[in-house]
Amino acid sequence: MTDGSTIGADETAFITAVRAGDPERFTQLTERYRRELQVHCYRMLANYDDAQDLTQETFLRVWHKRETFGGRATLRTWMHRIATNACLDFLAKRRDRSPVPSGLPDAVSEVPYLQPYPDRMLPEDPQESVVARETVELAFVVAVQHLPPRQRAVLILRDVLGWPAPTVAAALELTVASVTSALARARATMREHLSHRRLDWRSPAARELSDDERDVLRSYIEAHERNDLAGLTALLRDDLRFTMLPGSGTTTVGARDAVEGWVAGGLFGPGYDDWRGLATTVNRMPAAALYVRTDGGTEHRLLNIAVLRIAAGEITELTGFDATDKPWLGLPPTL
């Protein structure tokens, strides 16, 4: 996604379409980037609805700025530049788009506006899929939210998209020295929040779930369907980090305490004891879409989606989201 030394075929075609006033050709040339631009906005904002809105704003800006495109950058780079600045403008106006203290003793903070990202909306371009999993996983997206907006943009453009420093500087109207400094600070913050994670996002990363992840996900769903408290407890690591959004926030609890807390909240009790589940993925992570049939109901209705981080055969992190009224997840509303 970096600038080329000579103008390419797409750039020439775009300029020709603009000069000819050909909106159909304009659309053909720009729409191919919609999915990767939306993922870019999601990384910046951590919220699917916001990413959709800002992607649409990007296309409006591209249309209004179309006559300023001169081919000095690739069309992809130019559109990402516009998307980045649209996100920065959004963040400058929204003071509710920053992490908040969780109240936990280890000073963890929460991202209450975090939403899952449906895998079916991820780019199909191999250039993007090389790094897609680790840079859309929830831990990465949450960690990015702890960066000031401009540092956030610098990190994503430099370390995820692989732009050279001069290109980032031009996109953000900064000096190369400022970009270098911002990147160093951003990397330090990311190391704090992802201290046990792989941090080289520009080298190939896994795309598919491992057999271990698939087995644990299947067991997690089966434990719900059998109302199997012991089986569910056995799947959880004893320092489980659990988050429910929107709702109760983040807790770090032992496996037994976690399950007992869920039971106290109604899990497997009357009205919440007839479950069905679908194995799926969001954010390139294993996820269980959970459906419940209430008393007198004839169908199991989608209630929530549990996104799992699995290591060594155990669930180490569980992030639950209310899945109702989110058709963009692509899940059937009933089973």
UniProtKB/TrEMBL annotation:
The keyword Kinase does not apply. The keyword Transcription applies. Residues 140-190 form the RNA polymerase sigma factor 70 region 4 type domain. Keywords: Sigma factor, Transcription, Transcription regulation. It comes from the Bacteria. Residues 30-95 form the RNA polymerase sigma-70 region domain. InterPro entries: NTF2-like_dom_sf, RNA_pol_sigma-70-like, RNA_pol_sigma-70_dom, RNA_pol_sigma-G_actinobac, RNA_pol_sigma70_r2, RNA_pol_sigma70_r4_t2, RNA_pol_sigma_r2, RNA_pol_sigma_r3/r4-like. Gene3D superfamilies: 1.10.1740.10, 3.10.450.50, Winged helix-like DNA-binding domain superfamily/Winged helix DNA-binding domain (1.10.10.10). Belongs to the sigma-70 factor family. ECF subfamily. Interacts transiently with the RNA polymerase catalytic core formed by RpoA, RpoB, RpoC and RpoZ (2 alpha, 1 beta, 1 beta' and 1 omega subunit) to form the RNA polymerase holoenzyme that can initiate transcription. This is RNA polymerase subunit sigma-70.
